Amino acid sequence: MPKSIVGGNWKMNTTLQEAVSLTGLLKDNLKVSQQEGVVLCPPFVYLSAVKDILRGSEIRLGAQDVYFQPKGAFTGEISVGMLKDIGCDYVIIGHSERRQIFKEDNDMVNKKLKSSLQGGVSCIFCVGETLEQRQENLTEKTIRQQIEAGLDEVPSDRYNQIVIAYEPVWAIGTGKNATPEQAQEVHSFIRKLLTHLSNEIVAREMTIIYGGSVTADNIQSLMEGNDINGALVGGASLSADSFTKIVNIIKNSRP
Ligand code: PEP
């Protein structure tokens, strides 16, 4: 059975004070058994401060992005080695905001994935279709291209370091979440695709999480999908109260 993962993607939000306070509240709110599989992804500049507070807890630290080169003249960028150095266990790769605003293509996503895995940092690999693609019946084709290109040259014995996040672009930050049926349909398609790329045993154990306007009110029904193993949460992860509720619902929905 796949491990459940709940990620909090804070995006470009919080002050240092808010980051510290949110982390402290989550550490206090969540019991140790509930902390497993919870990953906080603050902005780069607050990673170390958040890590300090997380010491002694099972909550993991994640970055929101990484560059694939190990070091050098890449002004403004952060390497996998740097993330590892300050205690990151995870990194989000291929988020739709990176793809759309910063023009990251599948090839860049693939380079980032490979270098993160080589450097020992697990990846939350985001895929998802736009509204236009869904309306034109291109959802599966888009997801297939993103996954096949993203995982190109990634050996399947590394798949256990990858969490796939299905995040329909039309659902991110819009308040319009996918219905549980829409989400399960794509998650099941992703698991079949992963079976082709690896094998049934590997694919069965892979964690596939849903993201896109997840709240404490809609997560319960989303978790009813057999292939939905957790969530990547944006807006609702900025409130300790909402994020705690989401984590608890996800943990309690596991058999
Ligand atoms: C995200 O950024 O990954 C996300 C899912 O955002 P939101 O929950 O705000 O839609």
Overall number of structural domains: 2
Helix content: 40-55%
Report the strand count.
Answer: 8
Strand order of the largest sheet: 1-2-3-4-5-6-7-8
Would you summarize the structure shown here?
The protein has 255 residues and is of the alpha/beta class. It has twelve helices and eight strands.
Describe the protein's architecture and organization.
The structure is a single chain. Strands 1-2-3-4-5-6-7-8 form an 8-stranded parallel β-barrel, surrounded by 5 helices. With 255 residues, it is of the alpha/beta class. The longest helix has 18 residues, at 180-197. The chain has 12 helices and 8 strands. The mean pLDDT is 96. The chain folds into 2 domains: 9-64, no CATH class; 68-237, Alpha-Beta Barrel (TIM Barrel). It starts with a strand and ends with a helix. Residues 9, 167, 172-173, 211-214, 232-236 line the site of phosphoenolpyruvate (PEP).
